[in-house]
């Protein structure tokens, strides 16, 4: 199994890049924070009619807007609080990587929200550095100031790392595909 880890600030183009890569190379898009978001939804009793937590992407369109259902926090603030004050203190910095590694299957997984090096380590350990690729997405005007994540480096684990500039236009798609065609060959 091949793993692509996309890393970059909020709104830098990680999900867009993931869609391009999936369309070009196949595989499936997964979220490192998917489990965190669903467990946060359950904690705040955000359940669907079947009694299951709302899907991880349910609040995506309003993730930076305060929500009464999160007691006035934005969904992003609620996710960060549950992660940093509950899960990581109890289970360690790798907890979400360990949970995701258990679920990964198929030929290619594109993780579009990798933002903590320790979370990626269990995935690299399970699938091997030679089967993983990290791409850091850079976009002018976008940073991590509203987020607890940051740029990561996995080269110490032997994972190849690419830095790709998102120009906000068609050049991003072209440079992304060029970088990945040679890296995935």
What brief labels describe this structure?
185 residues; 40% helix; single chain; globular; 5-stranded parallel beta sheet; Rossmann fold; 6 helices; alpha/beta
What do we call the CATH homologous superfamily?
A: P-loop containing nucleotide triphosphate hydrolases
Radius of gyration from CA coordinates: 16 Å
* CATH topology term: Rossmann fold
Q: Any idea what the shape is?
A: globular
- Our count of helices gives 6
Helix-strand pattern, N to C?
Answer: EHEHHHEHEEH
Low-confidence stretches: none
CATH architecture, by name, is 3-Layer(aba) Sandwich
Number of domains: 1
Measured distance between first and last alpha carbons:
14 Å
What is the percent of helical residues?
A: 40-55%
CATH class: Alpha Beta
Strands of the widest sheet, in order across it, are: 2-3-1-4-5
Taking all residues together, what is the mean pLDDT? 93
């Amino acid at each position: 199994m091949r793993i692509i880890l996309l890393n970059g600030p909020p709104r830098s183009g990680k999900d867009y890049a993931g869609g391009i890569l999936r369309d070009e190379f196949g595989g499936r898009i997964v979220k490192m924070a998917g489990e965190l978001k669903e467990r946060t939804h359950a904690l705040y009793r955000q359940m669907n009619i079947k009694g299951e937590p709302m899907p991880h992407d349910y609040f995506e369109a309003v993730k930076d807007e305060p929500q009464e259902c999160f007691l006035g926090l934005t969904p992003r603030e609620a996710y960060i609080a549950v992660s940093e004050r509950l899960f990581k203190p109890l289970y360690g910095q790798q907890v979400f990587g360990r949970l995701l590694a258990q679920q990964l299957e198929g030929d290619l997984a594109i993780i579009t929200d990798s933002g903590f090096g320790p979370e990626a380590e269990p995935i690299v350990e399970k699938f091997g550095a030679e089967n993983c690729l990290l791409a850091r997405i850079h976009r002018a005007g976008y940073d991590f100031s509203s987020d607890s994540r940051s740029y990561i480096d996995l080269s110490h684990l032997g994972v190849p790392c690419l830095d790709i500039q998102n120009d906000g236009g068609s050049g991003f798609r072209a440079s992304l595909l060029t970088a990945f065609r040679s890296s995935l060959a």
